[in-house]
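User: Structure with iron/sulfur cluster, tokens only please.
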Amino acid sequence: MAPKVRASMGTLGVLGLELVQMDTPPTTAYLQIFTEKRCAANCLFCAQASGSQADLMHIARGMYMPADLESVVLRLKMAYQKGYLARACIQTVLYGEWWEDTVYLIKRIREESEIPISLSVFPLADGPYRELKATGVNELVIPLDACAPYLFDKIKGKGTGGPYSWDRHMDGLKRGARIFGKVGTHLILGLGETDDEAVSIIDELQKHKINTALFSYTYVRGAQLSIEPNIEESIRHYRAVQLARYLITEGMATYNDMKFSDGKLSDFGVMRDAIIRIIEEGKAFQTTGCPECNRPMANETFSKIYNFPRIPNKREKEDIIKELGIQE
Ligand code: SF4
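Assistant:
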């Protein structure tokens, strides 16, 4: 059987392998190694988890369709040359042959193209990290997903019967950062964490050269976790953490400069004028993560955008001011 890979619908659209209408095309090719098995881990929010009943083709809102690996690799080369795509992002799944399948995909991409490659993977030993780097991985990402150890245990760790632990993830991130020079992680907001918990971990990770990409919790039909959010509070929380993350990563404020009341951000540690200026610029509310990653509509609906895949427009910036509860 010819080797396959999963690719997001938007990616297949940019590669010309599916006809897809998009107002904002992805700037990164979103791929996942192909298996028809469920993942051996059991993250409760994930469609592919061992205990999930959800369709294997989902990652959050995205549909990842099986595609011919060679066609994807060759078109990726052309899309990178023409400037349509600036990065390839590979998601992994834990099953018997995951290492061989992952290395094969990375090698095939690298044989054809110099496109930067991000790899999202669970913690590994130093040897495999070095091998991945030598094979062609530019950005290593180890998703923590939860903002605090107690939440990790509940949705991804021992509470799920899965193999992961907060300490091993943190250790993997720190070792990965030493080997790659820097490393990334994903945090899902909306799992029950407070502003305080989210900002505190972002600040701590930043000190270890660990860049955070923010995601909004998205219910997937058939997944084990189902949280019905209060939309108004979830967007306030998301905007507050986006702004705090931006201040931390830009070196404008730290967690210790900020104040919290009942877990909610009450003072960002900078002047109000600076916040208005940041909203005007809009960058703080764009998708975060690896360079050139815009993940259009990964967590969003047209009525509620958490991560803007472009600079927000004037009306969207006015909404952000309201969502943050800032008086004009
Ligand atoms: S930040 Fe974007 S490119 Fe990087 S691993 Fe996450 S989804 Fe992929």
